[in-house]
Amino acid sequence: MASLSQLIAKPVTFPPRSSRTSSGIRPRRATVQRVWCASSRRERSRSEPDAPKHDRRDVLLGLGALGASASATLMSARRAGADPVATPDISTCGPADLPQGANVLTCCPPPSNALPVDFAPPGAASSSPLRTRPAAHSVTADYAAKFNAGIAAMKALPADDPRSFAAQASVHCAYCDGSYSPEGFPGAELQVHNSWLFFPFHRCYLYFFERILGSLIGDPGFAIPFWNWDAPDGMRMPAMYADRSSQLFDPRRDGRHAPPKLIDLDYNGREPRFIDDQQIDHNLRVMYRQPNQGPGPVENIPHGPVHIWCGDPSQPGREDMGNFYSAGNDPLFYAHHANIDRMWSVWKGLDARRHTDLADPDWLDASFLFYDETPKLVRIRVRDVLDTGALGYRYQDVPLPWTAARPTVTAASATTRRADSLLTPAAQAAGGAKKAGKFPITLDEAASVAVRRPVAAKRSEAEKASREEVLVIDGIEVDRDVAAKFDVFVNAEDHAAVGSGGRELAGSFVNVPHRHGHGHGKKGRGIKTTLRLALNEQLEDLKAEGDENVEVTLVPRQGKGKVKVGGVRIELMH
After folding, report:
1. Which of 220, 380, 485, 544 has the smallest C-beta neighbourhood within 10 Å, fewest atoms?
2. By C-alpha distance, which of 253, 249, 220 is closest to 148?
3. What angle do CA 345, 573, 440 make, to 5 degrees?
4. What is the pTM of this model?
């Protein structure tokens, strides 16, 4: 079990927060950490040598990066003095940092003169049966008509009505593109991607979207659909979204990917050359690698590639789905994220003993603001949304064929070569990689590096169960508005021959374009993040458990020459 990415930033000291009874968050320490989205800010304080080493962005907003090491890192967070991520301050909502040519004036929600109320879970007070979110490809004509009517009703509302489709679409923009500051920190920025806020934020978002839609059609038991792209029957864009006469249709999509085109869950901007059976097999093997690593990688893949696959390449920012600021304008966004939300539940069900939510109150007490169906402003915390049943919904039971799609070792790499050997010219011509020089490096072409393992002897099953070997790709830097992807291979003789279904592929990094910082007067455009990938099972399959070193190859697929990597190492994590 491992992770996606961990944002790294130097801490900054703020004055103590005053008590706020309306927020429910009391001050605990004078020294806290700024919630940075990008880490390369020129404005950061360089005069705080004694400030804690862990940024709140690392330990709270970067928890999607932690996976198996979450508990240990959160203990460090405690020592660092991190507080819960405070409720966003709507009164200070500013202009988002949007790409040139963006067709929105603001991402801010309609203002509210009333203080937010705390969320009350419906579970205990409701005797209604759980709403069942259906797989979108399997819905009836009557369901599709009711859903279409609900979206039409939302679109008919004026934009200043917080229940309107326009206002709901702007929610994603505001939380993802720099409009919000956490309460009490007007100069800081809130970002819900590349973090452990990713899953709970989007669960809250869909919950209130669903409540609003059901209210508008007079059916509080209505449940929105999920796009079941992780199973063969759902790997096409659901038909009801492709009907040009429907309110579910969005003209700003990639027309090449309309049904019956199969989705590519590892999409990198180039069209794959698979026949349908090969694409299905490819997708299943991609899926096997993701939830089995931990929840963090799910945000990376398939979340990122699905966004980019749907977006219109003729638009400057690959709008709508291909850019975070505009993604909520496509009704398909909500089906995509319903399946991402389902993956959180699926992940916990794969191994109930090991796959558990974080228990640290700094994460559990992180909070967001949403308008409900009445509409009133509601403060909802992460601890409120850990159980879908308590929120009154469940997902349709569907098969998980990818759990049996364990990747296979590529024939050319079945015998692991010495990790410190130089590639021959023939190997390079066949798909090998140059030896990486001194880090940091720019990924303008494939680069390979020998990495020493923390243990050289084969470990017992008990040892592997207690501590995961995790490959850490550190110091990843890329501009936020750049679509970027690179693959990470381990002991691949010829990475070009491996493909996404090969055992040698450990995982990938994906950046979906979105900006951040401009709305608060900052200039930082880049992110600095970390990719962590679990290795235990992969090393076993590659027969490399007793090796001192492994060879790691980084292969740029999208955004060549625009991504930097600071280093590569392997760690043992509980």
Report:
1. 220
2. 249
3. 105
4. 0.79
